[in-house]
Amino acid sequence: EQLESKVATDDKTLAAWRLSYYSDRCGDVFIVQKPYYLFSGEKETGTTHGTPHEYDTHVPLLIFGANVKAGQHAERVSPLSASAILAKLGGMTPTKGSAEAPAGWME
User: pTM value?
Assistant: First the structure.
């Protein structure tokens, strides 16, 4: 019920899980590891990009080519933004459901 609710939440973990929850394909239980823990029998380092923790959700996005403005941008974008950027670079209209391409990234 918490995952399917449309009520706004300040809980960053719940908000992150809501973005990847599809009732027809997801289980009934979500497990959130402690920060910096991995499911493994051995002590490991690194990340899986599978937790809602800040360090695990910040992944660099590099884009270069014709019509791309040079520079660095610190704002957050989602994978949906990446698909919109690639569509625009290819001269196509982004698909329905894509996020907007970030302003100022392309000429």
Answer: 0.52
Q: Which amino acid is at 5?
A: S
Closest CA to 38 of 53, 27, 26, 25: 53
CB atoms within 10 A of CB 73: 13
Total count of residues recorded for the chain: 107
Residue 2: predicted pLDDT: 87
- Spell out the residues 6+ positions from residue 60 whose beta carbon is closer than 8 angstroms to its own: none
Say if residue 47's pLDDT is above 70: no
CB 51 within 8 A of CB 33: yes
> How deeply is 85 buried, as exposed, middle or buried, from its count of CB atoms within 10 A (0-12, 13-18, 19+)?
buried
The amino acid that residue 8 corresponds to is: A
Q: Scanning the structure block, which residue is given the tokens 């080519």?
A: 65
